[in-house]
Amino acid sequence: MDRDINWRIFSDVGAARESILKRHSLRDYDVPEQFIERSVEFFGERIMPEEAVRRIIGSVREGGDRALREWNQKIDRMDIAALQVAPEELRAALEAIPRELRAALELAGRRIRAFHQKQPLHSWIDANEDGSLGQLIRPVDSVGVYVPGGTAPLPSSLLMSVIPAQVAGVPEIIVCTPPGSGERDIHPAILAAAAIAGIDKVYRIGGAQAIAAMAYGSETIPRVASIVGAGNLFVTLAKQQVYGDVGIDGLLGPTETLVIADESADPRLAAADLLAQAEHDVLASAILLTPSLELAQAVQAEITEQLASLERRDIVQGAMLNRSGTVITEDLAQAFELANDYAAEHLCLLVADPWSWIGQVRNAGGVFLGEDSYEVLGDYVAGPSHVMPTGGTARFASPLNLLNFVKITSLIGLDKEAARALSEPAQIIAKAESLDAHAATAKSRGEP
Known about the structure:
Elements: E1 9-10, H1 13-17, H2 33-43, H3 49-63, H4 65-76, H5 87-96, H6 99-117, E2 124-128, E3 131-139, E4 142-146, H7 155-168, E5 172-177, H8 188-197, E6 202-204, H9 207-216, E7 226-228, H10 233-242, E8 247-248, E9 256-261, H11 267-278, E10 285-290, H12 293-307, H13 313-323, E11 325-328, H14 332-342, E12 346-350, E13 366-369, H15 375-380, E14 406-414, H16 416-432, H17 436-446
Parallel strand pairs: 1-11, 4-5, 4-7, 5-6, 7-8, 9-10, 9-12, 10-11, 12-13
Antiparallel strand pairs: 2-3, 3-14
Helix pairs in contact: 3-4, 3-9, 3-10, 5-8, 6-7, 6-8, 7-8, 9-10, 11-12, 16-17
């Protein structure tokens, strides 16, 4: 194969900031010409993805199941009579998958559940001389989980999204997922994962139309209170457009890993970690930050060597060309400064004493400490959900967790004496805001 793998090494940090470390808005993306061509087929004119998604959502709101079947036929070339997967199909898939895969998925399910059961989450009431104040924490009524089909089935994504919702106590959970690439139905591994998680409402629908169905409901698919799960550009745009009518976990873009390594790191393992992330998507980011030029060159050689045996090497090559490479830093301190600015989904610390650097981490979806805590374990079996903030949103967002599936209600139960004592400061603030009715209400409570 071609030995030129497009793996770039930046010795100039400033140049790296303007290249692989530069963040791009979700609103800034290149529209493939083939989409423009297909939009004419679907809509009779050339339109941008946002408008295509808007029209799909509108048609599903108005047309329900009929619109869903039409989009299945138009976009995925599928003529599906039964949108819902029958429960016996879920059980059959669980029995049909290889025994070792079933055991691995069951292990993952147990570890995900055990991890999230440790998250503190409880209502509280503080009773004092003023009365009582507190918070009620209640699960949302329903959640829709989107599981991508795409070029690879992702049963792990189903477990990582469904199980935290179950632990939080959500009473109704549904799953929407399209058939995988080249498949005429949902991949059996995804159906088996649903059976393992105890989910019986799985629907054969993908893309923006699936998000619309979960947001607004149809004759077959129930409307939900919140939608979680990653997907392609059209899924992400659909989540953005329905937000406010339903809750969402975030706008999840292409996956990304940032590796900080020193001279103690094994270049073979560092290369393997970078390649594992790059094979997801041509828009994936796999970035190495290191003060060691010698390590950077050794990792580059390992990437060339290991890439030759990968089935998805064309995708890896695309990721390397787009948003991946190595940055040579002055020292580890500068590497962590760059990492905090970048706010990666996955931050892998391949350094001699990773725990001593935890205090330097401010922004990351997940931190993987040392060569034995490699990111692939986080993808599947470590325990935390692998649904993590991307695109720099780790500056303000968190991995999927129980708080995504609950809502907090404030409790205010003050007694008469407290109400009277607080009346005057409430009146003062109300008058400052020119809200006379507020002030009058407070005054009436302050009178003996």
